[in-house]
């Protein structure tokens, strides 16, 4: 269907038969203004350059062009724009009209194809030019509807209302399109054409697509078999990917473009952790969630919640070192052990402990008495190895643990393959060198035994020892890790810890603490800064976590648990550079 | 009792104790806007039945731990997530919408476990993702981290 004759007549009437055809209907960035607008925004120069033009000629020409929009989709936008200035046309308008006629000359036979082999699939395309009308700041919307291969309806129209954002304008444009669509489908039904498929609407605005695909809005959504995952919100996909170990994560970058983006999102988050230091703690019940608490350098809220899970939620942590956690799953007759890397989400099941005694502490099982069998597990050698060492002194490890510490025994700490435990009865630290397979004990610097609260920890590679005896005393081990005789360096003596902590509690903490206080709960060293001690304690019935800086005797409330949860031991943790694999 | 309505207009009655595991409905009840039927416009009845089954089983999580029903619950969870991908994603969407933390956790973990050792090809096939990367781009990713693409555990089967 075409209007060649009409177009040619139009051209000859305008005496543009010899004019050069224009490839495009309108020059880019031409903003037409009305007379009214010019009067308002007075511009002398513009008035001189842009005088009023022959009104009859303009109106006649536009009337002809208006008829032509019945069949010419490409000129409908310009005709729509020009119509606004019918009353007081200016030279600039006339210029555009002339150019338009020259464009028509380019292809006077331009037509609408009504395909003979057509299906009943309805497709629409819509777009908006936001606030394109300079005078009223209203948006212009355009759409066209295709039935199968043929174009059946199109329009370019200035909106009646003002949209405040381009998204709003685009969304309104879709509404207009849908109104047309509904009318058209009704018409089709009336003339007996059945539209079986859903109508498709194409738009170029991402925000509109998101608004439109909001699951709350479209109740009668049809499942498209080809896109299971894309229906999930991106957050959820990332949530799932977060639970994958790094190796899988890196591999899945290859799945598709969008997945590559999600993966790099997950990875950059994990990289962020590498400078994070914090503490894991766990509520008493074994199925309770593991929590990670940050004391890191300044940015406390930077790490996402996904850290807070272990594979299978019935695990509890028993040790933490080198960026790994040693976790234990308790079953009735046996325990399973896992090594878990929270940064890479990898876990590794430690093979079953060969003997019947099932306590593993930082990879080592300890029965008492004078001959000691140490079974150790190393990821290098893989199977459990048994080392029998005849001890020259008795060791006390078990039973006391349950009375003085929390439910699960605290494991030793390790530096460079050497493990240290506090002897639970005598004033000494028991040492096992897993490289040279020998056992000895170090004198503790204070001579205090299990009646006092003591704690050892590793902070920036130094073995630290602290006790709570009329105030806080802290020593650092001066001799090298494999020396059989210990030399201690007394670093801090702080008599008024309780006072500092309490004053701080009064200013920072809530007032529901009772008068009674006790600092016996747990005490760990900050993994990177040896002068910071984290004290878990309770006062009255409230449980809280304090960070005590020994260098300047100041305390800071890290976390207040209130009466809700009891926690087991704290595990200092330093995120290692990523990726660190098992 | 609280009444829930799925998007295909079927109504379900659920005990309040069960349904308040959903943060969303809990808030609604607290604000007093759950007096009549709660419409859930983006959950179909098939998924809603699944979710209610889960909620009913998990009513007394704390109690279960004390009475030694923990294993029972664990077994139930294992059975529960034993479903097809589409169904699983429906449940995830529902859990996300209703804000049921534990269910979300369970399903996402299950999805991650299924994906964990799969090869790229298997993942694409399972989740029906079309590969829009060019061969060069793909090769580049592989060259960046060849260790991620080799290993005995990588599973190429689709199930």
Structure, described:
Chain A contains 13 helices and 26 strands. Chain A is an alpha+beta fold. The longest helix of chain A is centred in the N-terminal third of the chain and has 25 residues, at 166-190. Chain A is elongated. Residues 216-227, 297-306, 356-373, 396-409, 508-519 and 577-582 of chain A have low confidence and may be disordered. In chain B, a hairpin with a 5-residue loop joins strand 1 (2-5) and strand 2 (11-14). In chain B, helix 3 (45-57) packs across helix 6 and helix 6 runs antiparallel to helix 7. Chain B has nine helices and three strands. Chains A and B meet through helix 9, helix 10 and helix 11 of A and helix 6, helix 7, helix 8 and helix 9 of B.
Q: Low-confidence segments of chain B, ≥5 residues, pLDDT <50?
A: none
Q: Enumerate how many helices of chain B there are, as a single number.
A: 9
Q: What helical percentage do the residues of chain A reach?
A: 10-25%
The two chains with the largest interface, and their residue counts, are:
A-B, 42 and 44 residues
* Radius of gyration of chain B, taken over Cα atoms and rounded to an integer in Å: 20 Å
- One letter per element, helices H and strands E, the order of chain B comes to EEHHEHHHHHHH
The fraction of residues assigned to DSSP E strands of chain A is 25-35%
Q: Would you identify the CATH H-level superfamily of chain B? A: Potassium Channel Kv1.1, Chain A
Q: How many separate domains of chain A?
A: 4
What is the end-to-end distance of chain A? 72 Å
Order of strands in the sheet with most strands of chain A: 3-2-1-4
Uncertain stretches of 5 or more adjacent residues of chain A? 216-227, 297-306, 356-373, 396-409, 508-519, 577-582
Instruction: Name the CATH architecture of chain B.
Output: 2-Layer Sandwich
Q: What is the number of helices of chain A?
A: 13
Broad structural category of chain B: mainly alpha
Principal-axis shape of chain A equals elongated
Subunit structure (chain B): Part of a SCF (SKP1-cullin-F-box) protein ligase complex.
Family (chain B): Belongs to the SKP1 family.
Pathway (chain B): Protein modification; protein ubiquitination
Domain SKP1 component dimerisation (chain B): 102-148
């Amino acid at each position: 269907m075409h209007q060649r004759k009409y177009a040619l007549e139009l051209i000859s009437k305008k005496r543009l038969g010899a004019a050069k055809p224009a490839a495009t209907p309108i020059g880019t960035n031409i903003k037409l203004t009305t007379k009214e607008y010019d009067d308002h925004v007075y511009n002398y120069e513009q008035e001189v350059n842009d005088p009023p033009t022959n009104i009859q000629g303009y109106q006649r020409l536009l009337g002809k062009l208006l008829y032509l929009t019945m069949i010419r989709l490409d000129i409908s936008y310009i005709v729509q724009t020009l119509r606004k200035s019918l009353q007081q046309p200016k030279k600039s308008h006339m210029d555009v009209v002339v150019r338009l006629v020259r464009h028509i000359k380019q292809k006077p036979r331009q037509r609408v194809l009504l395909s003979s082999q057509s299906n009943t699939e309805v497709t629409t395309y819509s777009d908006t030019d936001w606030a394109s009308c300079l005078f009223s700041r209203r948006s212009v919307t355009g759409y066209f509807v295709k039935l199968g291969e043929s174009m059946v309806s199109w329009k370019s129209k200035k909106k009646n209302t003002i949209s405040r954002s381009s998204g709003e304008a685009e969304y309104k444009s879709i509404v207009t399109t849908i109104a047309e669509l509904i009318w058209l489908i009704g018409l089709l039904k009336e003339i007996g054409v059945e539209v079986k498929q859903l109508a498709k609407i194409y738009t170029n605005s991402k925000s509109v697509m998101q608004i439109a695909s909001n699951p709350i809005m479209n109740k009668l959504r049809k499942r498209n078999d080809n896109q299971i995952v894309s229906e999930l919100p991106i957050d959820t996909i990332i949530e799932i990917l977060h639970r994958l170990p790094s190796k899988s994560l890196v591999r899945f970058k290859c799945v598709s473009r969008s997945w590559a983006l999600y993966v790099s999102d997950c990875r950059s988050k994990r990289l962020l952790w590498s400078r994070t230091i914090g503490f894991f703690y766990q509520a008493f019940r074994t199925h309770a969630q593991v929590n990670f608490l940050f004391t890191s350098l300044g940015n406390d809220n930077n790490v996402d919640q996904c850290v807070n899970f272990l594979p299978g939620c019935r695990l509890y942590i028993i040790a933490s070192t080198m960026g790994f956690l040693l976790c234990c799953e308790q079953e009735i007759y046996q325990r399973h052990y896992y090594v878990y890397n929270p940064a890479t989400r990898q876990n590794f099941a430690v093979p079953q402990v060969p003997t019947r005694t099932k306590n593993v502490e930082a990879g080592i099982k300890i029965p008492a008495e004078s001959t000691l069998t140490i079974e150790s597990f190393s990821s290098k050698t893989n199977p459990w190895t048994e080392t029998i060492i005849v001890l020259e002194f008795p060791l006390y490890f078990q039973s006391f643990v349950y009375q003085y510490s929390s439910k699960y025994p605290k494991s030793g700490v390790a530096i460079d393959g050497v493990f240290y435990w506090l002897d639970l009865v005598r004033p000494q630290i028991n040492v096992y060198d897993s490289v040279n397979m020998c056992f000895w004990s170090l004198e503790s610097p204070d001579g205090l035994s299990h009646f006092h609260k003591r704690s050892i920890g590793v902070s920036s590679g130094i073995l630290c020892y602290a006790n709570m005896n009329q105030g806080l005393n802290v020593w650092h081990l001066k001799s090298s890790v494999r020396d059989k005789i210990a030399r201690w360096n007394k670093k801090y003596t702080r008599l008024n810890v309780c006072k500092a902590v309490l004053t701080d509690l009064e200013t920072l903490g809530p007032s529901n603490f009772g008068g009674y206080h006790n600092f016996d709960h747990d005490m760990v060293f900050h993994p990177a800064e040896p002068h910071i001690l984290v004290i878990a304690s309770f006062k009255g019935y409230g449980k809280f976590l304090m960070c005590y800086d020994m260098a300047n005797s100041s305390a800071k409330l890290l976390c207040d648990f209130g009466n809700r949860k009891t926690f087991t031991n704290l595990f200092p943790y330093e995120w290692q550079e990523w990726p660190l694999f098992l | 009792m609280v009444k829930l309505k799925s998007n295909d207009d079927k109504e379900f009655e659920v005990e309040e104790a069960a349904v308040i595991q959903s943060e969303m409905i809990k808030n609604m009840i607290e604000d007093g806007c759950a007096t009549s039927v709660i419409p859930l416009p983006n959950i179909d009845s098939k998924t809603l039945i699944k979710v209610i089954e889960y909620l009913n089983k998990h009513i007394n999580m704390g109690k279960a731990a004390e009475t030694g029903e923990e294993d029972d619950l664990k077994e139930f969870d294992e059975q529960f997530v034993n479903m097809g991908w589409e169904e699983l994603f429906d449940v995830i969407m529902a859990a996300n919408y209703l804000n049921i933390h534990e269910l979300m956790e369970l399903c996402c973990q299950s999805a991650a476990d299924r994906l964990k050792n799969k090869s790229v090809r298997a993942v694409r096939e399972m989740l029906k993702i079309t590969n829009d990367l060019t061969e060069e781009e793909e090769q580049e990713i592989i060259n960046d981290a060849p260790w991620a693409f080799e290993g005995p555990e990588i599973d190429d089967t689709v199930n």
